[in-house]
Design goal:
Blueprint: H1 12-18, H2 25-35, E1 42-46, H3 50-67, E2 71-75, H4 80-89, E3 96-100, H5 104-109, H6 117-121, H7 133-138, E4 140-141, E5 144-145, E6 148-153, E7 156-160, H8 161-167, H9 178-189, E8 203-205, H10 211-220, H11 238-252, H12 260-263, H13 268-273, E9 277-282, H14 287-293, E10 298-301, E11 315-321, H15 328-339, H16 341-348, E12 354-355, H17 358-361, H18 364-367, H19 377-381, H20 395-405, H21 407-410, H22 416-432
Parallel strand pairs: 1-2, 1-3, 8-9
Antiparallel strand pairs: 3-11, 4-5, 6-11, 6-12, 7-9, 7-10
């Protein structure tokens, strides 16, 4: 199996980019002492819930039985992206690590990962054609593949069908628009209905100030957060200002989306489960919990179209090989095992993910209409017009600026036209550091 060697070593400034949060010295010492014992095993680092670990551990044991190679699982459920830089800086990076496309640029740009194109091209059992092109594209940086995708992630609109039926509001069709969404939200959760539910005020559509949830509003109106080369922010352009104002207005002008003061910071998923939210913008990760807990009929719709269409994220999570790994061929064998059809089918069990493999996503087990949501194909249909969330290597610093500068807009204290120019200037300063 061909091995691509890194072109350069991590510099001090690049390590600083990777280490946006510095851990206490005691934790560093603990991590280092734990890592020393891993030299004889293939190490694999990931985050993940208890349910995910229950799927993963048997697959790792299966790999050991088939290859004779032991795997040490470094499960880091909290603070994963704060602890990984410490492992890299201490020369104790795991052989294989789980990343998503929004954090991958910081590692790929710092030559901390091995390009995987030679491995994939030389593998007789795995090929590019096995995966959705969008998933592979999400895991590329500057034209090179740095991780093999396990899953795809995109946003859809979960709908409380029982609420629609009770109010005599027909479900929108798949070609609905932003204006249609606003109209439905007003009919199902506007201020006129706030006294009708003894359990608390009801809302038409969810609201979340994290970029993942407002970027589709931006993209669907033909706007963006950055220019293609990450040289400047485009948040202050007219289409961006209009899109962001529309989103903020859902809560503060039209009163169809919950403000923090309305809900006491209750999660949107909780409001939906309580029957207080007619429509909930979320990803496939919500399916397993909803299948277990929801007592009403529900389904999913595509995200509504703006001036540029319906454009949501096509993000991915997958497996990468550290440039520090002394056993890259074995690391690739583990990735190939986890990315195979058999393992991918198990990851797709329970509805947690949209599989990155075409054959698994097309399997009746994923598309079965006997399980909610009946319109599961909506997740796949959205890939045609979706796009990966492209981020610069210092994305963590950009999100810090967004949290600070957009706060007045999300709280209804200032307009988009007043807030976004300053936010764009601050982001430009951060981008220049690259």
């Amino acid at each position: 199996m061909p091995v691509s060697k890194p072109s350069k070593r991590l510099s001090g400034s690049q390590l600083k980019t990777l280490s946006a949060v510095v851990l206490p010295a005691v934790l560093l010492a603990t991590l280092l002492s734990a890592c020393v014992t891993r030299s004889e095993k293939l190490s694999f680092a990931t985050w993940g819930s208890v349910d995910e670990m229950a799927l993963l551990k048997p697959l790792l044991a299966e790999f050991t039985r088939e290859t004779g190679k032991e795997v040490e699982l470094l499960h880091i459920p909290e603070g994963y992206f704060q602890k990984l830089p410490i492992l890299f800086a201490s020369k104790q990076a795991p052989d294989v690590l789980f990343l998503n496309n929004m954090t991958l640029p910081a590692y790929a740009d710092s030559a901390a990962l091995r390009p995987l194109d030679p491995f994939l091209a030389g593998d007789a059992a795995l090929a590019e054609e096995d995966f959705f092109a969008q998933g592979l594209e999400a895991m590329r940086w500057k034209g090179q593949l740095y991780a093999v995708p396990r899953d795809l992630s995109n946003l859809v609109v979960y709908v409380n069908q029982a609420m629609f039926k009770a109010e005599g509001v027909p479900l929108p069709d798949k070609n609905w628009t932003m204006r249609d969404m606003l109209d439905v939200a007003q009919r199902l959760g506007g201020e006129k209905l706030q006294d009708r539910d003894p359990q608390g005020r009801r809302f038409g559509i969810s609201f979340d100030k994290r970029p993942l949830f407002w970027l589709p509003y931006l993209w669907s109106e033909g706007a963006d957060l950055f220019d293609p080369g990450f040289t400047r922010s485009t948040l202050a352009e007219p289409h961006a200002i209009e899109a962001m104002q529309f989103y903020a207005d859902l809560a503060h002008r039209h009163h169809v989306a919950p403000r923090e003061i309305d809900t006491g910071n209750a999660p949107m998923a909780q409001l939906f489960a309580q029957g207080r939210l007619a429509m909930f913008v979320s990803g496939r990760w919500s399916v397993p919990g909803f299948r277990k807990s929801l007592a009403f009929d529900w389904d999913v719709l595509p995200f509504p179209a703006g001036a540029a269409g319906s454009i949501v994220d096509v993000d991915a999570s997958g497996w990468a090989i550290s440039a520090q790994s002394p056993r890259p061929d074995d690391a690739w064998k583990l990735i190939a095992h986890l990315a195979g059809r058999r393992a991918s089918m198990r990851f797709a069990d329970g509805g947690l993910i949209v599989p990155a493999r075409r054959d698994v996503a097309a399997d009746p087990a994923f598309l079965a209409e006997t399980l909610a949501p009946k319109s599961a194909r909506t997740f796949l249909d959205a890939l045609a017009t979706g796009r990966p969330t492209r981020t610069p290597p210092n994305w963590g610093e950009v999100t810090t600026v967004l949290d600070l500068e957009l706060g007045p807009l999300w709280r209804g204290e200032a307009s988009a036209s007043a807030v976004l120019p300053a936010a764009a200037r601050r982001i430009d300063e951060v981008l220049r550091q690259n």
